[in-house]
Amino acid sequence: MRFIQRWAPELLSILRIVSAGSFFTHGTMKLFAWPAPFEYPMNAMLYVAGILEVIGGVLLLAGLFTRPIAFLLSGLMAFAYFIAHASQGFFPVLNHGEAAMLYCFVFLYIAAAGPGSLSIDALAGKAQQPMGAGSS
What we know:
It is a multi-pass membrane protein. The protein is mostly helical.
């Protein structure tokens, strides 16, 4: 396990990058109909969510202002889950809320753990190592 533990900062960065890249496309679907059109009628709340998904996704992808952006996006996904999915049943697999729930907790973890070693924040010296990284 020490082998994989040595890679924790890089793996945290990969989790952030992959999650942010996927999250970004949710916003581009809402705002630009790319890579496919959004399947529900748009309203003001969805436009705001799309803007946060695009801008927040880019910032998180780059690892810039990672902790506050990840915390904001975690809250956005909690809000999305309870507004759009929870009323359709208890189980996320049945109410189609799995993505919102997972993004919420992944972003909450990133807000707590930081951006990882591969980020603008780390290059600028604003990132701290996640707890436990590099320790025995």
